[in-house]
Sequence to fold (195 residues):
Amino acid sequence: MTPERFDRLTKVLNKRQPDITVVLENVFDPHNISAVMRTCDAIGMQDIFVLNNKIPPHRKWGAKSSSSAAKWLTIHQYTDADECFAELRKRYKKIYATHLSTDAVGLHELNLTEPVALIFGNEHSGVSEEIVAMADGNFIIPQVGIIKSLNISVACAVTLYEAYRQKLNAGHYDAPRLEGNQLNTLRDEWGFMEE
Fold:
C-alpha cells in the first residue's frame, strides 16, 4: 500500500461512527439497499443490518446505485428478528423505527448522538408491526405535502444527514471513534480493494 493510500484510508476510517446503524427490514429492491449503503458510507457509518425474515436473503446489491459502497461497509444479514435485535441491543442504546403512529416523534426530536439503530421498512408496507413492537420508539420525517411518504433511500438519507448534523455539532468527527484494533483491521482489508 502506498503512503498516499494509507493516509487516505486512515482519514476515512478516522471519521467512522460505530455508534449509529441502519436496519433495513425486508426491503425488496437491491437498488434501494445500495442507495442506502451509499449514504451510510457518506456519513461515516460502518455497520449496516439487513433483516430479511419475510423475503429471501439478497445475494447481491445494485452496484450502479451504490457506487460499490457495500465493499466499504460491514453488512450484517439476518433472517431471524430476535437474533437481529439481540445483536442490536448489545451495540446500541436506542432502537427507533420509522413508523407513522400516534406516539411517533419528529426526526429532529431524536437524540442521534447516542448509540442508536434506525429501522426502515420495505417499499410497500413499511416497518412491520412485529418490529415496531420490538423498537424503543417511532419517528417520522416532518412533511407538509399531500403524499406524506418518501422513497426508502430518500427517507434514510434525510435521517442520516440529520444524524450527521447532530454528531458533527457534538464533535463526533473530531477524533477516531473505532474501538480496539478495528481501524487497523479495516485499513488492512481496504488496502487490497479497488476504489
Remarks:
- DSSP finds seven helices and seven strands in the chain.
